[in-house]
Every structure is written in C-alpha cells, then in structure tokens.
Amino acid sequence: MKYKKYPSYKDSGVEWLGEIPSKWTYSKLKYYIDNLVAGGTPKTDNKEYWSESNEGLPWVSISDMTRSELVKETKKNVTYKGITDKNLKVLPKGTILYSIFASLGKVAITDVPLTTNQAILGLLPNKKIDKRFLYWLLIGLESYVQFTASSNTQDNLNSEKVSNFPLSIPLNEQQQIAKFLDSATQKIDTLITKQEKLIELLKEKRQSVISHAVTKGLNPDVKFKDSGVEWLGNVPEHWSVSKIGYYAFVTKLTGFEYTNLWRTSEDGEIIALRGFNIKERKLDLSKTEKITGALSKKLSRSKLSSGDIVFPCTGTIGNAAIIESDNKFHINQNIAKITFDSCINPSYAVYWMLGTFIKKTIDKNNMSGMQPVVLIGDIRNLPIIKIDYVEQQQIANYLDDKISKIDTLIGKSKKSIKLLKEKRTALISAAVTGKIDVRETL
C-alpha cells in the first residue's frame, strides 16, 4: 500500500536525515539513554570462567543476536566468577543490544538478565523514548551507520558515536509508529518465511529427482534387481554396480606439494578453486585465489581440464561441478579431481555424485563428529552404476531439463525474499524518520 506524508516538514539540519515532520524534534540518542554498557570477554582458556550448563549467565556474541529478536539462550554461558573477575556488567531483561564491531547495527532485546562481549553495547533507554520505537529506530538507522562507521580492517563504532546518533523524535507518536512496524514487519516476515520454506521444499524435490533418476532410471516399467549395496537398494536389472576407481583417475594436491610448492599470486593466470567455490553443478567465482601458470604446469597431476569433476573432500562435502575450460582452473589441497574415462559421461557422473546415496555413504563413513573428510581412496571405492553411454546421456539430459525448471523457481523465490527484505528495510527507515505518516494505518 501507499503511505501518505505528513502535512508539513522542516529541515533537520543533518544531510543524512534531511527533512523531518514539522512537529518532530531533532535530537541525539544520548539524551534518551540512561546508560550505554560495553561488554567484554573473560580469558577463553580459563575453564572457571565458562560453563556449558545453566550455571552463570548467557554471554551474547553477534551470532546469538542474529538468530532471534529476543535473546534468551546463547552458545556460551559465562560463570559468575568470570563476570566478577572481568568486571562485566549484567544487563537486565528488556535491554536493547546493539552491535558495534564487524557486523554493524544488529539489534536485539534481552529476554533474561545476561552479559555480552565487547562487540555489543547494552542500551538502557530512559522514559523519554518508547523502547519498541527505539528498537525500530536503531534498525532504521542502518544507512546512517554505514555512513558514520570508521574503517580500518573492519567497520566499527564506539560508545561516543552511538550516543551521538541523530534522531528525529515524534514525542506523541512513538508508540503508534512502533505498533505499526510490529504489525507491518510481521506480515513481511511471514511472507519471507513462506518463501524460505518453499525454497527448502524445492531443494528437497531437486534432490529427490536427481537421486531417483540416477538410481532407478527413466523407464517406469523396467524390472529391478537387488544392487547388493545396502544404501542403494534395487536398481534396473540391466544395470551393473561398480566402483568409481575402475573408471576414473582420482587425485588431489598432496600435503607435501601444498606445504613446499603452493604459492598464491595476485597476478596469477590460473584460478585455484577452494571448497566454497564449488556449488551444486556450478562454480561460484565471486571470491577466488590464483596461482601462476608455471606452478599449475609444475603440479600437472592436480591441474584441471575440461570434463574433470571437482569434489570437495574436507569440510563442506556434497557438492560437485564439471570443469568446462582447459588451462583455467586448478585444485587446492581440500578438493578432489575426478577424471572419468570414455565409458562414463561427466554430465551423468556429476549428477551421480550429487545423489542422496553418495551423501549417505559419506555420512556413514564420518561418524566421529569431527570435520567431515573423504579420503581419495574412499572416493575411488564409492560405487557408481555402469550403464550404456546413451542411457547416461538420456538421464543427464532429463535432469538438466528438470533441475533447470526447479532452479528457476528457487531463483524466483530468492528474488522475492530479496525484494521483501528491501521493502522491510525501506519501510522501517521511512517510518522512523517521518518520511511517511502511519498514524491512520492502525
């Protein structure tokens, strides 16, 4: 819906803020805050200061703030001894939390007494300002925060900068604006949640479509047989189960090579792929490292060519992509290179590597709870179904079509979420700075 403006405006005298409603008051945050409380971090190697149980109080980091508007539980608890020795201030329930390092301008409210680390300020407002209005006001100041933050290695604020934030205060309308934003943002958040759930359902469907095609084929009338592999179950009777190592050269950069030879270079010609560069069937090259062509040539065994499949084997495991260019990419020490022979179609093989069956096999081999690691030998021993090359291509073509349609729907949902978040941000900013009049919307 479109919102009307206030009847008249005046110049705030602040370039960033611009005009404000004529009856609003220009001021600074410090006149509406009784106290700004900085946090701290007790020594992390002192076990007396930290508790994994309910002993002590929640200790808030920025990641705890981003999970929910109300902070009740945290990843870590600090003991009362840690609070006393570090002289940490305990923030009462209802305190507004505001992040001032790295992830600037995150806002949350305490739901229990707690303490924070040094990247978070506790704001205790006085009676001149409605607490919910202040909450939305701080969120609406995002663009100002980016403008005022100083930057060294990372953006940061401090107590003085926060206390001098410019505010336009509607003395008699704060609760109305806060109630409007509570309601309007809840509606937007509901729409965002629905789109996020739709994305998850589409991803599940995508996974199901891939897994069914590569393990059951495309013919609904085909006869099946037991594959002999527990996690795989029945397969078409004309298919045979083999191992990847029988049809592929599988390798990676060795630890010796990485330690003694590997050097990145800003002027390098070759992109050195890392785990986060490899997504499902595609490469994300938004952030890359490079090495020289001479080093890539020297490490020729782990150099990538068109048709090779790259498969992260440490940390985030489960994605796979096909290399589509010669002399452009190399792998680092945490990625496996899989080069199939002429019997296996790479387009079919990459879908096989993305199937639920492979993921289950990998998970079964990583039951220790440590960082997931797949050894080169484990990859060679992973099963693969050997079928006629023409049928491989048919399955790949079928999946290209089906997955493309699902990915298009996922893309539309992501775009909707982006637009909804932009609308949410703009609406909050407009309401708390008086650019729109929401008094009659309740």
General description of the model:
There is one protein chain. This protein has about 450 residues and is an alpha+beta fold. Helix content is about 35%, strand content about 20%. The strands form 9 sheets. A 5-stranded mixed β-sheet has the order 4-12-9-10-7. The protein has a 4-stranded mixed β-sheet with strand order 5-8-6-11. The longest helix is centred in the C-terminal third of the chain and has 44 residues, at about 390-430. The model has no long low-confidence stretch (mean pLDDT about 90).
Supply the key terms.
four-stranded mixed beta sheet; 442 residues; alpha+beta; 26 strands
Short structural description:
By secondary structure, this protein is of the alpha+beta class. It has helices spanning 62-66, 80-86, 131-140, 142-148, 159-163, 174-216, 255-260, 293-298, 346-353, 356-364, 376-381, 389-432, and strands at 9-11, 19-21, 25-28, 33-38, 50-51, 57-60, 70-71, 76-78, 96-99, 107-110, 115-116, 120-125, 150-151, 155-156, 166-169, 224-226, 234-236, 240-243, 248-251, 270-273, 289-291, 309-312, 321-322, 329-331, 335-340, 383-386. The chain contains 12 helices and 26 strands.
